[in-house]
Write a structure and sequence with these properties.
six-stranded antiparallel sheet; alpha+beta; about 400 residues; five-stranded antiparallel sheet; C8orf32 fold
Amino acid sequence: MNDKSERQIEKIIVIATIIIFILLLFLKTADSRILQEIKPSLAGLSAGCADERAGQAVSQESIFQEETNLAIAKTDKDFKLDTKAELLPRGQASKRNLRVDVQISNESGTTASDILLEIPLLGDLDSPYQILLQESFTPEPLEINMHDYDNRTGTFKIGSLAAGTTKTVTFNYLLNVIPLTVDFSHYDSTPAFSAKQYVEPAYLNPALKIESDHPEIKAKAREATDGLTNVLDKARALFEFTIRHMSYDLDSASRNSGALSALHNGSGVCEDYAALFVALCRAEGIPARLVNGYTDPRGRGDVWNVAYGETFPLTGFRHSWAEFYLEGLGWLPADPTLDKRNREFMYFAALPQTSHLAQNYFDQPLRVRYRGGQLNVTWEEGLVGNIKKAKGS
């Protein structure tokens, strides 16, 4: 073989190597996924504090974690209390139809394909003032997965989305919301506390923004409950301290920063009030948890009475409150934000009106995986009036 032939073979090998490299790079790029993660930020009672999930841009990541444990969605969920349920007088329930619309828009000039969404659902809640009666999804999820803090997510397959088009995933939840005011006149608060038998360890342990193991939180909890011997009195004292210590400030630079920040700064919004109360309770060994959802700032709940065929948007009504656990009674609500202007403790172990709509005990992000295009996801929640009044009523 002469030199000319050898040089030609070398050229062919080099060209072939370049072509193979380009093909491998193309295949790797084509097989990549874009992951969008949107997490809500709770900002309090003001109408200016809308849910920040809406309209956020897409970020890129290489890994998408998928859950494999399939959970069965519950319809006609039975509500069960502990043995002393007679101490929990509940008023007339009101039905609420909560609708969630998740819109996925392709804002690019190319088609997006293989779209898979993991969307937070209404949690598998056991709060005594709300019962999930029925739920429906359009389209149906591929699976429903259970997570920590009784959270659920649904996995939805959208397929492809042409440039400039939008698809919507809709959830409908039919809820019974029940007024609750605990009667402690016959409650025996003297037995040894054994709530650890009934609650998840997560509700006794420190967590993100719940720094219950911090020395300052522990010291303040001891100081506020000094001389008290039973759980009920301790919880009430910690509730009163939270109200006395905090000042509601929607513009606070330290808002939504957690319990320790609330203790240091003494100002913030509903999440800060609730986080401080929960952390103080846990520091004293009292199980407690945050509840995320919506509330009527006036505490009446009549704002949720939506006429048939109409929709009441929940933008601006996002809210956080707390629950603490008492042996024999279970989980009880406590909303220090709504009690901040009175000393009657109307919202300690009580939600006297149907003013609160619980969503979860720990916010989770929405995740999207897809190829090509540029997706934008918006999230809208509202109450739908779907009950016709009888003639003459």
